[in-house]
Amino acid sequence: LEHEYINGAVTDAPILQVRLSKAKAISQRIMQYQFTRLDGGPLPAATAGSHIDVLIAPEFLRQYSLSSDPADTSHYQIAVLHEDQGRGGSALMQRIFTAGRKVFVSKPTNHFPVAEEASKSYLMGGGIGITPMIAMAHRLHTLGADFALHYCCSRAQDAGFEDDLKHMPWADKVHLHYSDQGSRANLSTLLNYQTQAHVYTCGPENFMQAVLDTAQANGFPEQQRHMEYFSVPDLPQYDNHEFTLRLSQSQQEFHIPATQSATEVLLEAGINIEVKCADGICGVCKCAIVSGQVEHRDFVLSNQQRQTHIILCQSRAAQAGGVLEVDV
Ligand code: FES
Fold this sequence. Notes:
The protein is α+β, with helices and mostly antiparallel strands. Helices cover 16% and strands 32% of the residues.
């Protein structure tokens, strides 16, 4: 699972040097990697749904979900899909990431947390999108919570995680769905809503949309439906207009031209605002809205969150010449 950032990535996350302790092909196109501390000691703790940034080479910083058990701080585990269409980072990684190599990674951060109080959790992983679901399953198992993990792949031969999943202490909660074997998931029958049930999905966009649409149709309230993108989805055609951004704490005003995002203008002006993906996916640039009409263009906020917050790296004023005031 990854997000790709090339150059210009801004992160103030503390960086750790770790050792690549294991590199294993788990299918023709998926590599699984494990990182341990150089001195073998415990790594910073991660919560289920967390990701780390991995520095593959100076020009490649990428984000991967952790699939390791959050209770086990002896290592971080990620998986990387070799993309035919990718921008080269995964191919480079497969070539140079051999066991024993020292690698820089960030501490884990989490934009996809699991609701531990849920009455039941449905973990719906499509292809490589299964990785955060595995960490969530570990956590829910530790809590003794009720959950079901569904691993959905087009072809059984690409299901690199099947073997791992079959040997988990919670293997009885795992359901495998392979379209080429006629076992495609029947979402409308398996996503049974009960009070306080939550559904999580990560994977190809069509898959996630089908999961979320079905969950909605089956009665899951919006705040109990969760998704995480692993690549930038196709964007609708937006027209950029200029607008004014006011910072409520300092009362400074900035003109945002049609050619720049609000975060670009703020960073140029020396305003300290955290930006990572700049694609509206990771959520780190989220700010509270004080006033103004927003055209939301992000992929992280729920409709409910959009009432009060904005993703500044992508979203803009709804009208040309509009004024947005944010709590910065
Ligand atoms: S920086 Fe990632 S959503 Fe804005």
